[in-house]
Amino acid sequence: MASSPPRPIVSIKGLEKTYASGHRALKGVDLEVHAGEIFALLGPNGAGKTTLIGIVCGLVRATAGTVIADGHDIAQDYRAARAKIGLVPQELATDMFETVWHAVNFSRGLFGKPRDHAKVEEVLRALSLWDKRNAKIGALSGGMKRRVLIAKALSHEPSILFLDEPTAGVDVELRRDMWDMVRRLREQGVTIILTTHYIEEAEEMADRIGVIDQGEIILIEEKHALMEKLGRTRITIGLKEPLAAIPPMLADERLALAGDGRTLVLTLMGEGEGAQGAADLIKRLGAEGIDFTTIDTVKSSLEDIFVDLVGKRP
Questions:
Q1: Residues 143 and 106 in one domain
Q2: Distance between CA atoms of 9 and 130, rounded to whole angstroms?
Q3: 3-class DSSP state for residue 156?
Q4: Domain boundary among 227, 260, 275
Q5: Least buried of 58, 273, 284, 294, by fewest C-beta within 10 Å?
Q6: What predicted TM-score, i.e. pTM, was given to this entire model?
């Protein structure tokens, strides 16, 4: 029996935004985010990421287009749509003189949710903030302040969580902790949409990747399919004796000889070709009686793919 197609929980069609200055920040964006996935939206500064998030979260008015959030049109049914969405902004925008407990309770009340101390306690414990519940936010470390922002965003039990640069400015250990927390949220059924400058964050966590540039979505792809389709494997072999040229039996447009004649470089497209390609090349070298001293295999990262995609745009 065929599996049913994924349910879109965020559906964006024909989204346009032109600011009063005349700057066209979004140019007919179409995007669907599936329920229960982690979707990473990547793009250089000024690509339109923040504008897109702002429109979906009701902070920016679209010039044209529609956005449906968990069944609710954000323009026609704003309150219901916004109640489905949690937003963790990039900036640490919160009252530094209130306590963690008060801030999270207040955020829950903003969305019309009844008092539920057990739910607030659950959120704070999940974020390792329970011991800090009576602390003033201004007295917390940067990483803890960011956790408070996440707690506030989760306080009204949204089904969709936007994380705008969630680990900007936090150390590597805390970044790993937050990745683990995001995975737990997904396991609980929350759909995660994140923007990040740390492309390894998307590579580590995302199910699908979207790339936005100059206000347009230029690619949406399942992560592993993207790596398979656009990734490269570079195999570098150090030769025992220099070659004047590549022997005819080794001729391959993907094989190059470095200037000193001591290094062969084979470039393979696709994530899965690397190991087999290296083994085949070693056999062919042996058959030609060519000895080598070193072999090094490097796979392109998501960052390499991203730079290639954006760099090729006019």
A1: yes
A2: 31
A3: coil
A4: 227
A5: 294
A6: 0.78
